[in-house]
Amino acid sequence: MSSWKTWVIVVLVLAGVAFGVRQYRAAFQETTPTGYTFRRVSTPVLDKGWRGQLRQLVKAANQRTAGLSISSLQILQLAREGKEEIFWNSDVAKNVGFKPQKTVERQWSGSTDRLVGFYTLDGEPLVYTVRRAAQDERTTAVTVQLTDALAPGGSVTFLRVEKRANSVRQDHQSHWVAGMNWPNRTEMGLRVRALCLPAGATIVKVLPEEPLVIGLGAQPLLGWFATDMQVKKPVAVTFDLK
Hints:
By secondary structure, the protein is α+β, with helices and mostly antiparallel strands.
């Protein structure tokens, strides 16, 4: 066989191998599809004092569940005028499959700049990945990495945290007022609502009266509890700022 034929055969074989490797990678290796952006994010670690307040709130809730689970937990960290608030909302991950599950898929609408991150009920930060299609900037797929794999049929409650526009307003006496509503839907379990006052706040009035008060320092946390059978009026706090 002449040398040039040998070289042609070698070139064709190498081209075939290269094509096969490319097809294998496209089919079996994780790559970023065209038109998508991926970003891995580490949720910020909580301040020690705030994490302690969160733990106390969850502990108090668990003591009131009477064998039921926490069906809804929301916390609003109030801020001074002109600054954004921080809103905490519980979410439940359920494994409806037949294999252990280590991640949870969620959809996020709007800019991810508002998303602070995800935490366990104990305040441990969770890593998550955001995936967005270039042609649809309004919706982002979020994959949350759980600390422990969920067994088939199991469930776990975690917290989603986001920034929100300031909702604090002044009343006719120049006091500051903020509040939260209870969900309209019937839920099996305990519902929790909590307001964390901004630094330098002095409580004037709370409704309903006698909430659980966690921390009497610079930023007290006020908590209210209700079951799905109780009809509750909105929670509210009136306060002054130094």
